[in-house]
Amino acid sequence: MEVLLHKRNTYCHCKQTRTMADVVEKSTAQQADEILDDEALAEEKLLEELENEELPSHIRDARMSELKEQVHQYQQHKEKGYGLYSTIDKEKSVLDITTQETRVVIHFFHPDFRSCALVDKHLEKLAEKHFGTKFARVSVDIAKFLVTKLKIQVLPAILSFRDGIVVDRLIGFEELGNNDNFTTEDLEKRLAKTGIILLPDVRPESNKSLFGYAKRRDEDDDSSEPEDL
User: Fold this and answer.
1) pTM score, two decimals?
2) Residue 128: exposed, middle, or buried by beta-carbon count in 10 A (0-12, 13-18, 19+)?
């Protein structure tokens, strides 16, 4: 129950320091599952904490309402596949997901590329950790229109979308040490720089162009061993 208690303690102060969106976006899939699996217990524990604080009844009622709203948002995210690294099998679904959800990370991959398989392993872990962001992948063989439209020429290509707009492009491994020895934490910190996922020690930076976070060499440069389409 340590995760639940920590979650509720953070939650009890969300009126002053965090919005409901912040609470959900900074949750892990495990934290969401634990609250969803036993909502009654979560409410009971929160009631105990509120009673111990001797707060006025209207504040207790407000915080209980916030917990119910938190559970509702967790359930909505769960139904949409948040917390999982899913494979999209239709190109139209990419458009639907990126326009309907607030934060989305899409990996454009090729099933025969080893570098794409490596990225998959890291993104699967990040999907579980960052419940407030939708993670998915789509084969370039399926998303041919988008590959052309987004000018994707080198793989792996990780594109981040916010409210339907591309806010970041991570092409190849150049920004991850220029080799395939980067860790999940390296990729996590890189993605957090644009705010597509949230980390307490990384402040999102906005001074970037549509086509990439940092100034890079030409995408056709194979010094980081990306793979051409």
Assistant:
1) 0.69
2) middle
